[in-house]
């Protein structure tokens, strides 16, 4: 619905009596036809000076925009707080994952150290056992050699005794024969 008058809005030139035209200068729309003023928000009257009109228009614009700005500010604050919470939560999750990774690595290193120590102990045990077995074998061989040497000496002594006895006997026999002759 157009009002049909020639005045319209001083800024954008909109002659519409409603907000359908997209005019953002809503509070400074004024028309000369009195019957059409009922369609508009209260604006400055035509009789007021231009400077006062503009000042009032600015104040009305500020009053109109202030709640919207406060709402936008609250929304921005809420978004920022939500973003901060999300970032903090992500940080905590990252720290937790890092701690878990460090714990897993520490456990793995501990297990590796335990396995290495166990292998080392086992090698040392085996080496000790082998060494003890070698020592036992050496001792056995030594004892066996000693026994053999003792036996051999005994045999030699026995042979010597037998020879000596034979010699003596032969000497006696010779002496007896000589005496008899």
Describe this structure in words.
By secondary structure, the chain is mostly helical. It has a domain at 19-79. The chain is built from one helix and no strands. The termini are far apart. Mean pLDDT is 78; it is low at 26-48.
Brief rundown of the structure:
The protein is 72% helix and 0% strand. It is an all-alpha fold and 181 residues long.
Output the number of helix runs.
1
Rounded mean pLDDT is: 78
- 3D shape: rod-shaped
Instruction: Sketch the major β-sheet.
Output: none
What share of residues are in beta strands? under 5%
For this structure, the quaternary state is: single chain
- The SSE string, one letter per element, is H
Distance between the termini: 188 Å
The SS-based structural class is mainly alpha
List low-pLDDT spans: 26-48
Helical residue percent band:
over 70%
Number of extended strands: 0
Gyration radius, rounded: 63 Å
